[in-house]
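In keeping with the milestone schedule agreed at the kick-off meeting, the structural modelling team has produced records for the first pair of proteins. Each record is given below as a sequence line and a C-alpha cell line. The laboratory manager (R.T.) confirmed that both were archived under the project's standard naming scheme.
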Amino acid sequence: MNERVGSRVKTPVLLKLLKRTNTRGPVPPIRQWRYGRCWLWTGTVNDRGYGVLVLWVNGKNKLVKAHRAMFEAVIGPMPDGMEPDHLCRVRRCVNPEHLEPVTHGENLARGDTTNWLRRRQICANGHDVSGPNGRLTPTGRRRCRQCNREYMQRRTARLNADGLTSRGTMRRQK
C-alpha cells in the first residue's frame, strides 16, 4: 500500500487526507435534504478557514487546500479554469459530494464575502464600526472612520516632514 521513496515511506494522498478528516461532522445548515454530513478537516486551517496540508508535488513540497486535494484524490483532476465550490458553505468540509467544480466568477457570485464585509462589527484594530464610527463604501465594504482619521494624520505628518503637499507635489517656497 505504501511505496518507498529512498529511505522514506510515501503515504498515498487519500490516506493522508482521511487521517485528518472527521467524517461524522455536522449536517450542513443549508440544503439538509440533499447532502449527507460534512467531513470536517481536523488538520491545519488557514486564516480564511480552509483546511491546508503539505503535499509532495513535482519533486517539492507544496501547500495545498485540503478540499481540493480530496476532490482530486477521490473524483479526479479538477478541470482547467475551475475551482471547487463548497455547496454546503462549510469551509472546513472536505466531503467530495459537497464540492462542485465552478469558475472563479461563479464561486464568488455564490459566496457570501460581501455580506460578511457588510455585517462586520469590529475593524482590524478593534474599533466598533457598527455605529457612527463605521461607513459603507460604494463597493459594500465597511470602513472604520477612526482608523482612516489616524492614517490621514500619519500621512500628513510624513508628507509635511518631506516638504510635500497632500498630493505628493513639492510645496512652494515663500
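The second protein of the pair:
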Amino acid sequence: MYLCNPSVVPEKFTHITGGAVTLNKHVIIGSGTVILPKVTIGEGSAVGALSLVNKSLDPWGIFFGCPVKRIKNRSRHLLKLEAELNERIAQTNNCEPNKPQYLTLPSTGEQASKVRIRAVAL
C-alpha cells in the first residue's frame, strides 16, 4: 500500500515497476540523473547531469538528455592508463598481477588481521 494524500491506494493501482540497475566498470553518472529500473549502463559510459536513462546504454559512449541520446564515443585511453597503474602497483608490491596478495595490518593488542587485496583491478 502507498499513501496518496489522506487516502490509501492498493498496490494493484499504483503501477510501480522495480528492477536492478547495473553500472559497469568506469561509468560516470552526472548529478541529478534519473536511472529507471531494469537498465544496464555499459562499461566506460558517461551520462551527463540531469539526464533521464530509460534504456540500457552501450559501452564507451557519452550520453546526455531527457531521454538520453548518444552524443559521441568516449576514449578508451583510460584502459591503457589503468593497465600501466596496475603494473606499477604490482612492481611496487613485488607481486604478480591478478594474483591475490595478503597484507598484515598492525594489531591493537589483538591478533593482527589479514586483509585480501589485489594488485590489479578485477
